[in-house]
Amino acid sequence: MAVADLNAATGILGHCATVLVKDSANSPTTAAQVARELIDQDEVGFLVGPTTGSPEMSAIAVSNRSRMIHMAGASVVEATDPAKYPYVFITESVSTMQGQTILQRVAADKHLKVGVLAGPTLIPDWGVRDVQSTVRHMMTEIGLTDRLRAGGDKAVRAFVEESLRSYGPVHYRSRLANRDLTVAGTLVRRDEAVVSVQSAANRDPKRYKCPVEIDLERPNPRDHIAFNFGPRTCVGANLARIELQESVRAFLDRVPDLRIDPKALQPKFGGVQLRDFRPLHALFTPGRKAETVA
Length: 294
Fold this sequence. Notes:
There is one protein chain. With 294 residues, this protein is an alpha/beta fold. The chain has two domains: 2-120, Rossmann fold; 123-171 and 214-283, CATH 1.10.630.10. The protein has eight helices and 13 strands. It has helices at 2-9, 28-40, 53-65, 96-108, 122-140, 144-167, 198-201, 237-254, and strands spanning 17-23, 46-48, 69-72, 88-90, 112-118, 173-176, 181-183, 186-188, 193-196, 259-260, 268-271, 275-278, 282-283. Helix 3 links the parallel strand 2 (46-48) and strand 3 (69-72). Helix 6 (144-167) runs antiparallel to helix 8 (237-254). The chain is globular and about 65 Å long.
């Protein structure tokens, strides 16, 4: 529908657009194969996606060798270097060289074909990882569920913020500097790649007393950058908070004795940009129900 509306107006720089969508299956191997099909068989002029690290980098490697314009998110740090990847268009931060390359390609095409490598979007993926880490706290920290029930809704909200701060799903974010600046005595020039490690900042001992602990009494529970900050603050932050709060209430209400299965494989915190605890093998008493948190 959006493509039809676009073409009915002016198209892209006066050219009509055709969108071909293929599933990357969130697999690096499949992403590379699909990227090659879109380039060689479908003869697309652009590639877009996928949105997750390893599959994205596999597709970018294929498109870069073919000198194919590739519009991608900045989930892979290497791809933010326009000197190595001159055909990659990072949607979060664009260098002047990349922008000019895209405009030249669009202007040269009489009919624009765009290949989209689809896959699971980051928003549902982040949501699942948020819940996994939050529930793991409830299953492993002695006395936490009792404190949550005793503290009511205020404690639940504080717990969600503490979980996001201490084990947020997004480890780091990559950006390109839009001007020269100095950070902690280091010169960062315009268009250079910068990786900000939000997880480290959220555990800064100079800012948080006992940063590794889940503290339901922190003075300002939302004082963290799990959702980034400024103009790039996550647009789904409030939705994520509501989902997590409702998940915690549901677990307290429906499975109050939820716990880790000591005989099963124990959860480990892992991942690169997106992180969570896996696997979560749980034990609980079926049918038992506690009072709903007020």
